[in-house]
Amino acid sequence: MGGMERLLEVMRRLRAPDGCPWDRAQTHASLRPYLLEEAYEAVEAIDRGDPEGMAEELGDVLLQVAFHSVLAEEEGTFTYEDVERKVVEKLIHRHPHVFGDAEAKTPEEVKARWEELKKEEGKGTDPCQAPLPALLKAYKVWRKRGLKAEGEAVQKALAEGDLSRALFVLVGLFAERGENPEVALLEHLRTVCE
Fold this sequence. Notes:
The protein is mostly helical. It folds into three domains: 3-81, Orthogonal Bundle (Helix Hairpins), CATH 1.10.287; 94-125, no CATH class; 127-194, no CATH class. It is built from eleven helices and no strands. It has helices spanning 3-15, 21-25, 28-48, 51-75, 80-93, 96-99, 107-120, 134-145, 151-159, 163-177, 181-193. The chain is globular.
């Protein structure tokens, strides 16, 4: 036994009645913060250009996939095979230029087609409905809706004590420049935390 099946068997053993009390006590909801944390740690390893760290942190992300899959298997709601099947189907469907007869010669054409397909699927049409962290969601709202941000609006919001509106307008200024505020803030934090 190897590959993903080995990881799933380890998780099943940890969840068994004679397994680990902590692992047995977990639910999809209780694991939520770990999924987010592991994803951020993987991104940090990528940003550092650390292949060994990437392998470790991506393994931790994969562990989260296995953990949720085993929980769902126990509940009878889905299995790891369902997870894998759905992602394979999605990749094939969203790459008709590879698996079908559509054409896309540039990354921009591929991205445009990807967005069209998501829209046809009823996904990705309204950034307000996207399950994203607030900063990234605000960025997508500004980009998708074509809003215009003004620096004076930040000053006005600050003068009125409305920090959340000031932050939203600041995100709009990033969006107008085509800069992701999450990435920019992380880069700034690296210099602050050195």
